[in-house]
Amino acid sequence: MDQENVSATLTIAAPAAGVFAVLADPTTHSAIDGTGWVRESADQAPLTEVGQIFRMNMYHANHPNGDYQVANKVQVLDPPHAIGWLTGQEKDDGQLEFGGWIWRYDLVPLGPSETEVTLTYDWSAVPQSIREYIQFPPFDPEHLTNSLRHLADLVSGR
């Protein structure tokens, strides 16, 4: 794969503010996740500012521990148009280390009750040292479409 990002787009029958509210609530991320890796949010506070850290409990069969936790740092927060975060981990000394990949949702209102949502996974900033042991993207790109469908279901259920 020559490009260093993948994305998917879906039109959701909901206003952009409603879609954004779901994305800004870390407790919804396990239900949105299209990979099945996100278990639950370790932090309950809504995402409200760039630089905010929120942690997610995860599971992946190929991870050395199976269960693990990621620390995410909000990189983009432009309600109700865009939200995105870097994913990393907390080291034993408490320092945060980010791998260079970002998850980003861009929302375009198509009217009062429709929003076009694009989910992008970008790994262009991942250093070579990480690329040596993780293949990018580390999931089938169809998982992005699954995530958007899950998001649509959550938003319509609110």
Describe the structure.
This protein has helices spanning 16-23, 29-32, 128-131, 142-157, and strands at residues 5-12, 38-41, 53-59, 67-78, 82-90, 96-111, 114-122. It is of the alpha+beta class and 158 residues long. Strands 1-7-6-5-4-3-2 form a seven-stranded antiparallel beta sheet.
Nutshell version of this structure?
The chain is an alpha+beta fold and 158 residues long. It is 20% helix and 41% strand.
Number of helices: 4
What is the H-and-E element order?
Answer: EHHEEEEEEHH
Strand content is 35-45%
Percentage of residues in helical conformation: 10-25%
Bulk shape: globular
**Any low-confidence stretches, pLDDT <50, length ≥5?**
none
What structural class results from the helix and strand content? alpha+beta
Number of distinct beta strands:
7
| Sheet with most strands | 7 strands, antiparallel
| CA-CA gap between termini | 38 Å
Gyration radius (Cα, Å) is 15 Å
Identify the strand order in the major beta sheet: 1-7-6-5-4-3-2
Mean pLDDT: 87
Would you spell out the secondary-structure blueprint of this structure?
Layout: E1 5-12, H1 16-23, H2 29-32, E2 38-41, E3 53-59, E4 67-78, E5 82-90, E6 96-111, E7 114-122, H3 128-131, H4 142-157
Antiparallel strand pairs: 1-7, 2-3, 3-4, 4-5, 5-6, 6-7
Helix pairs in contact: 1-4
